[in-house]
């Protein structure tokens, strides 16, 4: 069986954000057959959108996205961002200045993580947001995909200041895809997305802003500001379906684990990943992929020279950048938009230590080979962030 997909990165997000090292900000592609053959056809539209002037101050992300048009991307994204006034989270609501009122839709997933979203939001977060001027309409998701439907149909005029997601990376990803799937996506993508992390992992918030508890997230939201984040797109060529993401796209072992883990969500909650990992490890299939990628030219960023050297040698003559092909057995392929730091775990290792969430490129990690021993060594090394030193691991920045 073969599948083909295309990745394009044609946008950036300003503000804060959405997740995954696990996640659903990441796309999970996997097969359960013993031998997998995938054709990977990736196109990354290289323009970076301008960033918010207020950075790293909140969980609000504001997207500016122009899909599939590299030429006019920069001009299409020059509009000024809404100016979020910083307010004191402790101020009394009666003193809230005119203009500081922020009307937002809150999408709450009651099933996220340990299913504590309701408790966390109503007991610890809501009052703080109210005090800082948020006027909220709260909708609880009733089924998987509900957040996407809400984001794709919401009246943008009713909630001009954004959507706050109370949940994990999956909910954020649904909102992202809902907004980008609208007919008026060019307007919708300017809507900020905020996150109150109550999910299993919330890698996006943790990685990019260093915040993992909901109260800190609420305070960050109250303070205002944006964090720019690139958006990448994964297009399944055969079906024509496109998914957007902020965190990563996984293929091979990790993708299979994420997929399998969904079977244990109800029983195990966040511990489902460990159970699925052990099961998949014990029944490890062989994964065979054909990957084509466009390495980032070292000329564009001298600091990246070392990282891309290996691949750059393979580029064609005349300074013309060409695709690099890798074919064979892989334990896994990671395509990361940020360095992917899991919010849980003792050592908090990162998968792609050089990945930047706002640099207009993706970091590709190819784990060559097959077999449990190699996989075990990879994950042990990963715990100490030594995995890139392994001879069968290739790391390259790609467009
Ligand atoms: N009411 C619901 N019932 C069942 N599934 C839901 C419901 N609401 C949302 N979902 C699904 O649950 C998925 C996971 O939700 P979410 O990301 O909030 O939590 P999580 O998986 O615990 O956290 P993380 O994504 O950080 O690991 C979402 O992608 C969504 O499709």
TrEMBL record:
Pfam families reported in the protein's UniProt record = DAGK_cat
**Lineage: superkingdom:** Eukaryota
Q: Which InterPro entries match?
A: ATP-NAD_kinase_N (IPR017438), Diacylglycerol_kinase_cat_dom (IPR001206), Lipid_Phosphate_FormReg (IPR050187), NAD/diacylglycerol_kinase_sf (IPR016064)
Picking any one GO molecular function of the record gives:
ceramide kinase activity
| SUPFAM superfamilies, per the entry | NAD kinase/diacylglycerol kinase-like (SSF111331)
What processes does the entry annotate via GO biological process terms? ceramide metabolic process
User: Residue ranges of the DAGKc domain?
Assistant: 99-238
Q: Which PANTHER family match?
A: OS08G0152700 PROTEIN (PTHR12358:SF37), SPHINGOSINE KINASE (PTHR12358)
Q: Which GO terms describe its cellular component?
A: membrane
What is the protein named?
A: DAGKc domain-containing protein
């Amino acid at each position: 069986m073969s599948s083909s997909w295309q990745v394009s990165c044609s946008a950036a997000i300003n503000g804060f954000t959405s997740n995954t090292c696990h996640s659903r900000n990441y796309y999970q592609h996997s097969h359960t057959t013993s031998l997998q053959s995938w054709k990977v056809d990736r196109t990354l539209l290289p323009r970076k959108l301008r960033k918010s002037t207020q950075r790293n101050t909140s969980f609000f992300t504001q997207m500016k996205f122009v899909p599939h048009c590299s030429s006019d991307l920069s001009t299409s994204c020059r509009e000024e961002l809404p100016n979020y006034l910083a307010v004191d989270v402790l101020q009394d609501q009666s003193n809230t200045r005119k203009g500081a009122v922020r009307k937002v839709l809150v999408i709450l997933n009651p099933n996220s993580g340990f299913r504590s979203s309701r408790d966390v939001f109503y007991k610890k977060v809501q009052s703080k947001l109210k005090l800082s001027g948020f006027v909220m309409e709260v909708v609880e998701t009733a089924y998987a995909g509900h957040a996407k439907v809400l984001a794709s149909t919401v009246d943008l005029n009713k909630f001009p200041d954004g959507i706050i997601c109370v949940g994990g990376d999956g909910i954020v990803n649904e909102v992202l895809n809902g907004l980008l799937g609208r007919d008026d996506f060019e307007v919708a993508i300017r809507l900020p997305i905020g996150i109150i992390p109550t999910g299993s992992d919330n890698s996006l918030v943790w990685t990019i802003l260093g915040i993992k508890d909901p109260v800190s997230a609420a305070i960050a939201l109250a303070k205002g500001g944006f964090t720019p984040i690139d958006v990448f797109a994964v297009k399944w060529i055969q079906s024509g379906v496109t998914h957007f993401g902020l965190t990563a796209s996984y293929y091979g072992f990790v993708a299979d684990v994420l997929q399998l883990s969904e079977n244990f969500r109800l029983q195990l909650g966040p511990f489902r990943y460990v159970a699925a990992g052990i099961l998949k490890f014990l029944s490890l299939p062989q994964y065979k992929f054909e990957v084509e990628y466009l390495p980032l030219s070292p000329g564009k960023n001298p600091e990246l020279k070392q990282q891309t050297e290996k691949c750059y040698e393979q580029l064609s003559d005349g300074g013309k950048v060409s695709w690099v092909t890798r074919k064979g057995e892989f334990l896994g392929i990671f395509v990361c938009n940020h360095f992917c730091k899991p919010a849980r775990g003792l050592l908090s290792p990162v998968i792609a230590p050089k990945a930047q969430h706002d640099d207009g490129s993706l970091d590709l990690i190819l784990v060559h080979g097959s077999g449990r021993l190699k996989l075990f060594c990879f994950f042990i090394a990963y715990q100490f962030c030594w995995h890139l030193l392994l001879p069968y691991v290739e790391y390259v920045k790609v467009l």
